[in-house]
Write a structure and sequence with these properties.
With 167 residues, the chain is of the alpha/beta class. It is built from 5 helices and 6 strands. The protein has a single domain, classed as 3-Layer(aba) Sandwich (Rossmann fold), CATH 3.40.50.1820. Helices cover 35% and strands 17% of the residues. The mean pLDDT is 90.
């Protein structure tokens, strides 16, 4: 959130249904895709700007499904992309048709995203795409948030020709 906001971009951060203080019940990823679509609709109606989607963990897996086919989304960032978590296996076949710039960032010690499986997901995704592993980071990037922020800023600056604001 801070990395994208450093460009002066409006940022929307929300909880899925049933998480935190949000209403509703968790819907195993089905209704949550609708949550992301509603967020994209709100951003579009409020700001009328191209959208860079960024999601973390379950939010990345769910959000990619909603954001990839949406023409308002110009780029996608997936942080801590889950491949196998708590008995669930995530598949990302839809990324084969997603031609927007994509950044995947994971910790080298991410317990829900084994490097070999994540590399397979990224390899199967449509170009352009980039995978960055943050050495020593786990799924939550604890102690590595500055590196994560720098990775996002570098990628967004390179792909969208924008610069982070200072001060």
């Amino acid at each position: 959130m801070k990395a994208l906001n450093s460009f002066g971009l409006p940022v929307l951060r929300f909880n899925f249904r049933g998480a935190g203080m949000s209403e509703g019940e968790h819907d195993r990823g089905h209704g949550e895709v609708d949550d992301v679509r509603a967020a994209l609709d709100w951003l579009d109606s409020e700001y009328h700007l191209p959208i860079i989607f960024c999601g973390f963990s379950f939010g990345a897996a769910t959000g990619l499904r909603a954001a990839c086919p949406d023409p308002r989304v110009v780029g996608l960032i997936s942080l801590g992309t889950p491949v196998a978590a708590e008995g669930r296996v995530y598949t990302y076949q839809f990324l084969q048709d997603c031609a927007r710039p994509k950044l995947f960032v994971s910790g080298s010690l991410d317990q829900y995203s084994p490097q070999d499986k994540l590399r397979e997901v990224v390899a199967a995704a449509h170009d352009p795409k980039e995978l960055l592993l943050i050495e020593g980071a786990d799924h939550f990037f604890e102690g590595h948030l500055p590196e994560l922020q720098h990775a996002i800023q570098s990628w967004a600056g390179k792909n969208f020709h924008i610069e982070a604001q200072t001060g």
